[in-house]
Write a structure and sequence with these properties.
TIM Barrel, binds ligand FNR, eight-stranded parallel beta barrel, disordered N terminus, 17 helices, two-stranded antiparallel ribbon, about 400 residues, globular, alpha/beta
Length: about 400
Amino acid sequence: MLQSTRKPAAKPFRSDETTDSGLPLTAAGLEERARQLMADGAYAFVAGGASAERTLRCNVEAFERYRIVPRIWHGAVDSGAPETAVTVLGTALAAPVLAAPIGMQELIFDGGELLVGAATADLGIGSVLSTCASSTIESVGPESGASWWFQLYWPADDDLARSLVERAERAGAKAIMVTADTPGIGWRPRALAAGGPSLLSGRGLANYLSDPVFRSRLAEPPESGEAAMQAAIELWEGIFGNHAVRPDHLKRLRGWTGLPIVVKGVLHPDDARAVVAAGASGVVVSNHGGRQIDGAVTALQALPRIVKAVGERADVLFDSGVRTGSDVIIALALGAKAVLYGRPWVYGLALAGRAGVAHAFRLLLEDLRITMGLVGAANVAEIAESVELVRAEP
Ligand code: FNR
């Protein structure tokens, strides 16, 4: 009798948990179900983009421009279970995926950031905690395992910036991701028309209100009454937007923390070169999910130029429009080291809290693992080395 010499798969693929959840099995399905169930203002806040939302739409459509050219009977995969683990900027991840930073999650689900930290930690993937989180750095950090990063909106107050960064490092963050495309919030008519939430309501300010430097700028503690809270919100309004940040600021940041620095929102190769020269060891090619500049280049279109400019000196990550395993493969084949996954898990959170977040990530990870096996990539590095893409015919 023939004996199989195959090793059993290290991580057998099981989709029962995913398929039995009763939740939709695609990112589009999650969005559709969430649209039906979420409050109008909250849905518009998540789904909407800037102005006419052209960039928002094009981010997803951009993936249609590339086609994977599959090989047959090819590659090193022999078990149907490719190795998806990677290390990005010193952070070990079970797959090249991190939860994108999403602010104000109390609007989506009570304690959202804590649940996202726990769900991603369970799956062994990364998460990025927003400056504008609804829970503090100190409460989310311990829930988030060993692979979380802190996202900094650089305020117009360097002492506060430094305090936020030091708090994140103390709480266990493994990198600081500075979002550079938001010197102010974009023009978002869909969210505005739906009476969407605003940070001016005081939501999403947990990290500011709990910060010793921020509090030292106030005459009274924000919790001492309505007028004191209003004063805190006004202080926040005065320091959130910051058009004065320049690449050289990263040198200050370098003096405040030993953690790797990543700049999110890079679309021009010259900017990528400038931030890497100033001390960033990673960049995230992103247009903020089409929420900032309508008509901005899609992140996928920008990706190859950025990889060419800095890919040998820095880790290039991709964000804005990732919805499927093939999207991850396309971004990695174009030179990204990992992707940020955004809106689909936010809809999962809205639908089923922590279980919904885990479900949304499993959809992506199972799709990725199966498709890697089918294209013959035994591990993540082989995607860049051997997956061939062609441009779709117009
Ligand atoms: C965001 N994004 C974001 N980015 C950031 O750096 N800090 C933040 O606080 C937020 N907050 C936020 C809230 C919501 C509701 C959304 C949808 C997005 C942008 C986010 O990190 C990411 O760039 C986009 O979500 C990527 O687009 P897709 O792939 O989700 O469409």
